[in-house]
Amino acid sequence: xxxxxxxxxxxxxxxxxxxxxxxxxxxxxxxxxxxxxxxxxxxxxxxxxxxxxxxxxxxxxxxxxxxxxxxxxxxxxxxxxxxxxxxxxxxxxxxxxxxxxxxxxxxxxxxxxxxxxxxxxxxxxxxxxxxxxxxxxxxxxxxxxxxxxxxxxxxxxxxxxxxxxxxxxxxxxxxxxxxxxxxxxxxxxxxxxxxxxxxxxxxxxxxxxxxxxxxxxxxxxxxxxxxxxxxxxxxxxxxxxxxxxxxxxxxxx
Length: 253
Fold this sequence. Notes:
FNR_nucleotide-bd; eight-stranded antiparallel β-sheet; globular; 17 strands; PyrK_electron_transfer; seven-stranded mixed β-sheet; disordered C terminus; disordered N terminus
């Protein structure tokens, strides 16, 4: 692993495994830092596309870092073609993650699609918590087997599949009775969960999914509107407190 003064780290791929049709798990060798909810910028090409791609931390241990990502654009599709031993350049950790020390008691984690990616690392760092998962997928489910021994319950919803509730995850989630809610996924889903939590006065942390260019707060591509004015998702977030955000139709990202 080679590190430059600009914190660009050149590492080797240990594994790049396809989980479902467009979802992959990338494992990179090396010693890494990062808090739950933070992310790295990744790049494995020399020219086009110019920009790195932001991917949240799925897990870190002594000798590797893991990323779960959706191969849906040019950059992530190039990442999906990496083989064992190939090199990838990383910048990070970046952003502000979940305030683990503030999350106690009965916790609900609500995700949609690739929003599940950062939650394994989050759960493993939580202390004094009972965790229920509410996971929404379009069709195929992924990443749940490793989560089963870590949580109290897993509640599934699939839009078009035959696993769990047929419909949306917001149809099976109720914030009543929870001390804290953690949420990540499509904006429409997160907005609904945010509104539900505000109605029940339930504490919530939202991990925003935004397109990013620089990842360090310089370009303003990922600007997010909050009740305190514009914030940079990559630098001020991606995790925001629910009280900073308003439900759709008012002030919203």
